[in-house]
Specification:
The chain is mainly alpha-helical. 63% of the residues lie in helices and 8% in strands. Helix 3 (43-63) runs antiparallel to helix 5 (89-109) and helix 5 packs antiparallel against helix 6 (113-130). The longest helix is centred in the middle third of the chain and has 21 residues, at 43-63.
Length: 153
Amino acid sequence: MDTPTVPFSDLSKHSKEVAETVSRAHRVHIRRRDGEDLYLTTARHDREREETASVVAHLLSALVLSEVGVRAVEHALPAVFSWARHLSADEQREFVRDLVDATKDAVELDVHATLHRVIAEWRATARILADPALTASLTRPLPDEDHGEVLAP
């Protein structure tokens, strides 16, 4: 479903039309020139999205409580994340644990950045593993040179 987009100025100039669009389309993308874009949605639609996320998170969490469930999730992993096929079995298992924890954080703490970070980090790992030359370059032993303590950024 395409999300209608309106300029930020329409919120004040044509607020009634924007509200009608939100009611019809469930949400509207607000494009801003001087800041991050926004989405405007109805409270009902937002509650339904939260409920959907909660059901999926709890279902996934319950599924990985048994070894059969873990295997089912690992089996489904490449269908959802095609790049996961480059991860070893242990890495896929770790990715599933991280994914479950991150979905719980998204639902229980309303922290969504963790889920995005987990997926981005595991995708980067898969990208390295998919390139044998890059993998060899990044896993070769480091020279014996000691460059001293690494300071926190």
